[in-house]
């Protein structure tokens, strides 16, 4: 199993559109250590790459065809990605044993250039992602290969470990906490906007809204960046450090990729149109959304799709995780955001 990422790059020219005016939805917390949630209304939207995006951006096939999705039920989604502090509350209360092999993305320049903390995996360096990714055997949310604080997104967490956290939240609150579906995630990102990113059709303002591979990030993507972030974290930033989208959600673009419920598919042919997840039995590869701290500004688009999991084919040898351990893969690029349905009309409550 190799460290799996998909980075879609492109060249895009465009002008900025005015952000859609929206009344900020209400927020709530179901317990002291629970994530803050934003309650979203039901609604319809166009999911995937628009004709404008197809004309201007390469590598958007995975986001086609654009299709209407009708989310006819209210749901809530985390205001930010789950943080180290929030995940730590679960570990402390339950004594859950977490951590293990984790893929660490290394910077190419700057103070952290090719540096990491942890015990090197014996097969690290033999993977096709080398030397930009190394593997440690003792990675976890508090040991993600680089210095981490309580407010940064929790990463180096496997899908199994994320599911344990969601089960814990569900037991504590009496509600069904879960991963958002891919459609719910894009609906929340767009927040009634119809532009390529929720801040507009261009990228010169990306540094205001997203932690990505900017000009001074130390990552290869910076060569194509239109700006330099004022915050300038060396890797992930504290959750909520950048401007929110019109619905008050932070880091929907950048910081870390966010794992969703859906299995990976090559495109949207056959995708559900009601907000429910697109899953299949024995799924080994899952969609991630939002891009991360070392990717290009083009990965900050509403429609951009990435993935995490097992991939068959040349160069995908099981060097770190055998195929049967696909749900145990950890990366310090990937975290998650939680969701919960607000009534019995949602797909998970029927």
Describe the SSE topology.
Elements: E1 27-28, E2 37-40, E3 43-47, H1 51-56, E4 67-71, E5 75-78, H2 84-94, E6 100-105, E7 133-139, H3 159-173, E8 177-178, H4 182-190, H5 206-209, E9 257-263, E10 285-289, E11 305-309, E12 334-336, E13 339-341
Parallel strand pairs: 9-12
Antiparallel strand pairs: 1-2, 2-5, 3-4, 5-13, 6-7, 8-13, 9-10, 10-11
Name of the CATH homologous superfamily of the domain at 27-82 and 180-341: paralog of FGE (formylglycine-generating enzyme)
Q: What is the typical, i.e. mean, pLDDT? A: 90
Count, helices: 5
Q: Could you state the order of secondary-structure elements as H and E? A: EEEHEEHEEHEHHEEEEE
Helix-strand category: alpha+beta
Taking strands numbered 1, 2, ... along the chain, how are they ordered across the largest sheet?
Answer: 1-2-5-13-8
Describe the global form. globular
Terminal Cα separation, in Å?
A: 36 Å
Radius of gyration: 19 Å
E-strand count = 13
CATH class of the domain at 27-82 and 180-341: Alpha Beta
What is CATH's topology name of the domain at 27-82 and 180-341? paralog of FGE (formylglycine-generating enzyme)
Largest sheet: 5 strands, antiparallel
Percent helix range: 10-25%
Poorly predicted parts:
1-23
CATH architecture of the domain at 27-82 and 180-341: Alpha-Beta Complex
Roughly what fraction of the amino acids lie in strands?
Answer: 15-25%
């Amino acid at each position: 199993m190799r460290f799996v990422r998909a980075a879609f790059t492109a060249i895009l020219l465009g002008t900025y559109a005015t952000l859609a005016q929206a009344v900020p939805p209400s927020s709530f917390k179901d317990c002291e250590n629970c994530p803050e949630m934003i309650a979203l209304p039901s609604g319809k939207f166009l999911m995937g790459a628009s004709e404008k995006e197809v004309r201007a951006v390469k590598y958007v096939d995975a986001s086609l065809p654009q299709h209407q999705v009708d989310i006819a039920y209210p749901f809530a989604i985390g205001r930010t990605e789950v943080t180290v502090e929030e995940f730590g509350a679960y570990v402390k209360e339950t004594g859950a044993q977490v951590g293990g092999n984790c893929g660490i993305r290394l910077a190419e320049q700057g103070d952290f250039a090719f540096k990491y903390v942890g015990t090197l995996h014996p097969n690290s360096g033999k993977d096709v992602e080398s030397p930009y990714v190394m593997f440690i055997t003792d990675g976890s949310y508090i040991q993600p290969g680089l210095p981490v604080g309580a407010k940064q997104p929790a990463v180096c967490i496997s899908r199994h470990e994320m599911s344990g956290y969601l089960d814990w939240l569900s037991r504590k609150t009496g509600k069904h906490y879960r991963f958002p579906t891919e459609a719910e995630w894009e609906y929340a990102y767009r927040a009634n906007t119809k532009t390529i990113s929720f801040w507009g059709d261009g990228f010169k303002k990306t540094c205001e809204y997203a932690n990505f591979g900017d000009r001074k990030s130390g990552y290869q993507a910076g060569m194509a960046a239109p700006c330099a972030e004022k915050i300038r974290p060396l890797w992930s930033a504290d959750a909520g450090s950048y401007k929110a989208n019109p619905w008050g959600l932070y880091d929907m673009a950048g910081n870390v990729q966010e794992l969703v419920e859906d299995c990976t598919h090559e495109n949207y042919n056959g995708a559900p149109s009601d907000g429910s997840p697109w899953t299949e039995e024995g799924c080994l590869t899952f969609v991630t959304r939002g891009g991360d701290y070392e990717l290009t500004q083009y990965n900050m688009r509403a429609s951009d799709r990435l993935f995490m999991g097992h991939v068959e084919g040349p160069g995908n040898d099981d060097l770190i995780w055998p195929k049967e351990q696909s749900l145990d893969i950890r990366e310090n690029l990937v975290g998650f955001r939680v969701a919960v349905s607000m009534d019995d009309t949602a797909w998970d409550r029927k």
